[in-house]
Amino acid sequence: MEQIRLINLEDEKPTVKQAMDRLELELRLAKKQNVCVLKIIHGFGSTGNGGKIRVALRRAMPEYQKRGKIRFFVPGERLTIFEEETRKLLQLCPDFRKDHDINRHNNGITVVVLRDRKG
C-alpha cells in the first residue's frame, strides 16, 4: 500500500483552474487508494504560474479541511520539526521522516494529510 504520493501540479504549466481540477481528482483517487499523505509540488512563483497555483491551493486547504476532504495540511515553509503540525504529520505517517524537504523551508510545496497510516 502506498503511504505517500507525490503530485506535481506544475507539470505542463497548467492554468490555475486546470491545476485545481487535477488536485480534486488526485484527492479523490488518493482517498480511494488509502494514501496517507500527498506531497504537492505547486511552485512558488518564479515562473509566474507556480505563484498563482500556490495561492489558490493554499486558499482552498482550510475549506477542504472544514469539509472533511483532508485531515490537515502543512505548508512547505512550515515543514519543520519545530512546528506542531509537522510533528503531528510524522506521528501519523512515520514514513514521511525520510522526505528530503523536512527542515528545508520549501514554499513551493504543500503536504496534505488524508488519514493516518493505520486507517
What does this protein structure show overall?
By secondary structure, this protein is α+β, with helices and mostly antiparallel strands. It has one domain: Ribosomal Protein S8, Chain: A, domain 1 (2-Layer Sandwich), CATH 3.30.1370. Helices cover 37% and strands 16% of the residues. The protein has 3 helices and 4 strands. Strands 1-2-4-3 form a 4-stranded mixed sheet, sandwiched between helices. Strand 1 (4-8), helix 1 (16-32) and strand 2 (37-41) form a beta-alpha-beta unit. The longest helix is centred in the middle third of the chain and has 18 residues, at 49-66. The termini are close together. The mean pLDDT is 90.
Span of the ends, CA to CA: 11 Å
Name given to the CATH architecture: 2-Layer Sandwich
Q: What's the helix count?
A: 3
Q: For the largest beta sheet, what order do the strands appear in spatially?
A: 1-2-4-3
Portion in beta strands: 15-25%
The pLDDT mean sits at 90
Query: How many domains make up the 3D coordinates?
Result: 1
Which shape, going by the Cα principal axes?
Answer: globular
Number of strands: 4
Q: Please provide the ordered H/E string of secondary-structure elements.
A: EHEHEHE
> Helicity, in percent?
25-40%
Catalogue the unreliable spans: none
Give the biggest beta sheet: 4 strands, mixed
| Name of the top-level CATH class | Alpha Beta
CATH level 3 topology: Ribosomal Protein S8, Chain: A, domain 1
Structural classification: alpha+beta
Radius of gyration: 13 Å
